[in-house]
Amino acid sequence: MTSPTPWQRTARGAMLLDDAGRLSPTIFAEMSALAASTGAVNLGQGFPDEDPPEAVLTAARDALAGGLNQYPPGRGMPTLLEAVAEHQSRFYGIDLDPEREILVTAGATEALAATVLALVDAGDEVVTLEPFYDAYGAVIGLAGGRHRTVPLRGPDFRVDPLELRAAFSPRTRLVIVNDPHNPTGTLLDDETRRAVVALAHEFDAIIVTDEVYEHLVFDDVPHVPISTLPGAAERTLTISSGGKTFNATGWKIGWLSGPAELVSQVMSVKQFLTFVNGSVFQPAIAAGLRLPRDHFDRLAADLQHKRDLLAGGLSTAGFEVSPSQGSYFVVADAAPLGFDDAASFCRALPGIAGVVGVPVSAFCHPALADEYSSLVRFAFCKRVEVIDEATRRLAALRL
């Protein structure tokens, strides 16, 4: 399946330009505007409504007061490069050279964009899972690549091994793996991870992993970076960020790591995008990465509790809820409530229940969008009282 040209359509399926050539908002902007205008609880956008840990805020204040207001080094501030290396070693046993194998970026999205623009030529193919984060389709199109997707099937959103293999070809340059997955909340199983590595070797492709939800995993299931699998490290670029882990999505501090040669190729493009960013926030995210392990355990436990609250409320309201093993999100099927078109349902939901969600079809190309037409993504990265209010309002759907 090939994506639409980026200047005509976004990967989310919303028109960028209308018939008069004017910019048209995505459904995400539309849903947020509906939340603001109706007073609905906004469970559509995936950003938390709580502040970063105090140690992280203190480090940012100290950096600001200490005069770190000019350009940081191109690869990133040494304290953050070293903190990323320490983090990867502490959590996953991955050894990195902070001076050669890590690059700080303006969030994970810039890391993805710079990677695709650096490594993909016109006509190259890039494989992703589907549904997919909207930036994937956009930057693949900007690079002149062809977007091929592997559908996530069934209520638990699993990869069919035959469909995974069919997505690869001699033109495959990259395979982008989002694990934990947005929007479905699924984690890849070991068989799928191994298959990705084997296919990357067979077709001489580079693996790019989007692991921004790496610490937001539930039910005592560990996050397993693909780069830890045999034969993967030498052809894998790992991308993550501090925004989701430390409730600092507006700071836009991300990074990528991997083989020095690949990292340098990405840096050659990144320097002409943002050049550098976030001088006062880089040491703050470094402080976050150095927090004790029990901080990360509490974070996951807190979000798991919120997931359970929202999933329970959605089930009580009559949705069929898919399991969420990670990320900020849970997917619910509105068909049992009599709604087969989630896009129309989401536009009506603020008025009938005072809650905002996002249709999963917005993360798909048209063919799979039809298959997932009744599915809605809800975010649970909110305060408990906000989730309680949302579930109370959703209960009205059963009245």
CATH superfamily annotation of the largest domain: Type I PLP-dependent aspartate aminotransferase-like (Major domain)
Helical residues, percent = 25-40%
Question: Whole-number radius of gyration?
Answer: 20 Å
Number of strands: 14
Structural class: alpha/beta
**CATH architecture title of the largest domain:** 3-Layer(aba) Sandwich
Number of domains: 2
CATH C-level name of the largest domain: Alpha Beta
Overall pLDDT confidence: 92
Number of helices: 13
Major sheet attributes? 8 strands, mixed
Strands ordered across the widest β-sheet? 2-9-8-7-6-3-4-5
Q: What is the string of helix and strand elements?
A: HEHHEHEHEEHEHEEEHHHEEHEEHEH
Strand content: 15-25%
Describe what this molecule looks like in 3D.
With 399 residues, this protein is α/β, with parallel strands linked by helices. It has two domains: 27-51 and 294-398, Aspartate Aminotransferase, domain 1; 54-291, Aspartate Aminotransferase, domain 2 (3-Layer(aba) Sandwich), CATH 3.40.640.10. It has 13 helices and 14 strands. It has helices at 27-38, 54-65, 78-92, 107-119, 134-142, 161-166, 190-202, 260-270, 282-289, 293-317, 342-352, 366-371, 384-394, and strands at residues 41-42, 102-105, 125-130, 146-153, 158-159, 172-178, 206-210, 236-241, 254-257, 320-321, 329-333, 355-356, 358-359, 375-379. The strands form three sheets. Strands 2-9-8-7-6-3-4-5 form an eight-stranded mixed sheet, sandwiched between helices. The protein is globular, with a radius of gyration of 20 Å. 52% of the residues are buried. The model is unreliable at 1-23 (pLDDT under 50).
